[in-house]
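Researcher: Please translate sequence to structure tokens.
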Amino acid sequence: MNTMTMIGKTCSVLRFTGIVVLGLGSFACSSPDSPSKDSFGYQYLPLRVGDFAEYDVQSTRTLAGVPALLEFQLRTEVVDSFANAEGGYSFVMHRSTRNTEADPWVPLDSWTLRRNDRQAVITENSTPYLKLSFPVSESRKWNGNAFNSREANEFCVEKDAFSCDMYEATKVGKPFTASASMNFETTVTVVENDNQDLISFQDKRIAIYAKDVGLVYREIDSLQYCTQPACLGKQEIERGHVYVQTIRAYGHH
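Model: Translation complete:
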């Protein structure tokens, strides 16, 4: 009898008798074909009370062709959890902002997050969005508006009247550099929308999640271009919003 066969039989006996043995090192009592939790991608959005992250934010709003840039810092912190109707737990995340590091944090709002073995949902300003679909895999698509009634430019299936924002997981497991001091080895980029006709508008939204960290980068480009004869096709921004959120610190306390 070889070593692996002996291990398999031992594990079967342990399961049968209900004995739990810790410290077996590399010999795990599981089938080599059974997927680990990490393989589903749950760690791209870890949920623990006490987790926090800080971001640098650049927000440019354009009205009547005149842009206005606002720069600030954003902090998110998971502060509480409670049982939900799905039989799992929802987590409460407080958000706060400040202008510079020298300023105190000012409370902004609260979001809720929940995750099960199929999906992760974040409720932003009372609107739930399906941010991740499990298992996370390259080119996996899902309707980000599955839990809300927001209008969208796409359709769930061809010729379907129900509008969708079809999210797509890309660059799964790839590294991402947020800044000179912030490098992440394992991330997933979720393209929430990439609808741009280059003539009248652009709606581009992406979010990047890092393993064991969560959101590390977010970009929103929601623009309306000038469509008058003199500027048609020149992509001159008439109104819109460009938002870039980049992680600068994270941790747990």
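Researcher: Any highlights?
Model: Residues 1-33 form one domain.
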